[in-house]
Design a protein that fits this description.
single chain; 166 residues; alpha+beta; four-stranded mixed sheet; 7 helices; 48% helix; 11% strand
Length: 166
């Protein structure tokens, strides 16, 4: 990013908007990180470095918090989140096969994001739809009683609705 362009200014304005309420209390770190992640979609390293400078909290301490809590992300995520349930019912009925099929379809590993930033695939402990096992969610849309073929079909259908190349 250039130092004098509008994009650079917009990027750091998001930081300043979040930090506007900072009172110097280190107990505000988690809410600040949450707001920064909301603003950027994840926690970029340069934002963490500036946060350290602004608050006086060491980068290593900030990273300790970020890596301890699973809610924080250090990498950008896709526009749509695919959650693959690995709860007991889903695991027994084939969650691993569903995950393999989806990851092959998207060309990424579990936990990864597609190159077009359209999808991020995550494993979750339970979606709460055990009677529909195995289950995935694409954003808030639930797909159950899946086979590897129907799981790939769900991804293709969703991608087609997005107008993205299949």
């Amino acid at each position: 990013m250039c130092n004098n362009c509008a994009e650079h200014s917009k990027y750091w304005n998001a930081f300043e908007d979040v930090m506007g309420d900072y009172t110097g209390d280190s107990s505000q770190l988690i809410p600040i990180l949450q707001k920064l992640q909301e603003a950027y979609g994840y926690l970029p390293q340069d934002v963490i470095a500036r946060l350290s400078q602004r608050t006086g909290i060491f980068v290593s301490q900030i990273m300790g918090v970020v890596t301890f809590y699973s809610q924080f992300r250090l990498e950008p995520i896709g526009k749509h989140i695919v959650k693959i349930c690995f709860g007991t019912a889903c695991h027994v009925i084939g969650a691993e096969n569903i995950a393999d099929a989806i990851c092959r379809e998207l060309g990424i590993e579990l936990g990864g994001t597609t190159e077009d930033n359209l999808f991020t695939v995550e494993s979750v402990a339970c979606i709460g739809c055990c009677s529909l096992a195995p289950v995935i969610m694409i954003d808030e849309e639930t797909h159950g009683r899946l086979t590897p073929d129907t799981a790939r079909g769900a991804i293709r259908d969703f991608r087609a609705r997005e107008g993205a190349a299949v």
